[in-house]
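Sequence in, structure out. First:
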Amino acid sequence: MLQNNIEISPLTVETIKLGVFVEDKNIFISLVYYTVYVEICPPAMENASTETFLITGGSGYFGYRLACSLHKNGAKIILFDTATPKQGLPDDIVFVQGDIREYAQVEKAIAGVDCVFHIASYGMSGREQLNRHLIEAVNVQGTRNVLKACVEHGVSRLVYTSTFNVVFGGQVIENGDESLPYLPLHLHPDHYSRTKSLAEMAVLKANGTALKDGSGALRSCALRPAGIYGPGEQRHLPRVVSYIEKGIFRFVYGEPSSLVEFVHVDNLVSAHVLAAKALILEKQHSSAGQAYFISDGRPVNNFEFFRPLVEGLGYPFPKLRLPISLIYFVAFLTEMIHYLIGPFYNFQPLLTRTEVYKTGVTHYFSMAKAKAELGYEPQEHNLDEVVQWFRSRGHGKKTHCSYLSRLLLDILLVLAFVAVVLSFLPSVGSG
């Protein structure tokens, strides 16, 4: 068989499905490369499902993986997003291009579906996290549009993708559960977390709302995932690899005992499918009105989690550890600078304050409720397939990188840091 002009034997395809990195004299491929083209969207099973699902944000990494899982079981899938998926689409998956901020576009896409997975959001990380206006419009108004359209068009089920951040704002949380109160809105260090909290509240409040066609009520629930990872993840991992390759990842911060959580994309897909099933009458709408924390269930130090990626790409793991207070201060200064010059030069901050908290302060949660009520059982994963994915695309340490170039970069980084700090100090003789 041929794929991208490379001949692959059936044995090779089977080997890839088992997750083995394959190398011979003519071919160098990995599980991750063919995950997109061979395994993610296989042909639908006949007579497996008659349901229709709409996925907002369906062109993103997680949304697309969820779509393909549902598609495999025979469901009809509609992806609603501003851009088409990079991976391409099988003929029987429908893509509707639209903006979640525009109610008319949402309403048109949602008519006739059985269940909505509302994944679309904006402002999770980096410079996007500083665009307050767009964050508000997408996360709050967009969610209102989805809820209104569900009620108007008789859609009885909605699963919302929320975040740990609705209860976390930099405080230590050890084995927390869903009984924790929402973090007061004014304590959120970023607008993304604040708006996701507002959106989740709206989704859960809408549970039980009578549908306009008289067919019943809207049943809604929310899943609060940890940071998502997996081969081909498009938001966080490329940024991490970029920092590694540019020589910026020269230090870690926070206590070595600090613990956070992550969730593999396939575990998150499983949780969403289970949550949607738990909303149906046959399951007594058991997940309706509920929120669930979702992760791999294995708390780990943030930087130790990424050690296999750093070393797998051929780079040394940093030995220098800085206090989290210093990194937070630098992140604060960076945000202030972005606020001043962002309208003219929208640069990518090294880290935001929220990212410092998320990576350096202990916060992890119990999966007991998700396991008991949804039947969620996270499978064990690691970063091996992620390393293979990046290496198969040419990433990894380049042997020609000289000592002098690394030294020059270190000097420039130190000078830039000093310049930022000095710019915020009072001038001599002022006052």
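Second:
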Amino acid sequence: MKTPFLVSPFSKDSFSNAGFTSSASGSTSADGAGAKRTDSISARSGTGKIALYNSKAAFLVCSLIQIFLTACSQNTDYPKQVVEKGEVGKQFEYEIKGDPDRTRYRMTYIGSIKTKSDTTLKFLNLINITGGFDSRKAHYTGAVLLYDQHNNYLGDYAVQDTLSLPVRVEGTTLVFSGQQDCNAITKIDFSNEIPKEIFIKCVGDSGDFYPFDHVDFSPDQQ
């Protein structure tokens, strides 16, 4: 059964079809004031380090990403085709036609990591934008999607805002750069395995925990 809101064709030769555009951009954050880090409730871990965990935000983002990926599995898999292109830093945007909230999905492939087990992990930043084209009124959420060397979707880390998305791949690590009110840089190592949970620093020992959500939306395995 086809999902009605996915109405735009996705050409392998061009991303300029109706509802889907591309732009050369190395930035993975949202526009201007539309992407501000929100405060979370602080909690102290057993090691004494302060950690921030926003479960409601993570659940909401995860739900939005799952809805989009479920629709893609039933139609054209837009994120997968961006990964297949393999153009690091190039930004692609898909708009849901007829949606009163002017929902858009912004996708940027940021690179790959080869693990010690000789497998390859590929990383895609996916930003969900609702509320129109005014960056002051729009709402931004995001997730980093993981794929294997065969471009099969493995799962994702849903984050509470676009400033929590990784900015680049560096060796075998995924780099999260501090922005705005967060000045810490976090590097997550993927050389051994996919972490079940990652901790992205903000200021000092504070930051956010994000679990890895493994849900199979691959149309080849349904």
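Remark: DSSP finds two helices and 13 strands in the chain.
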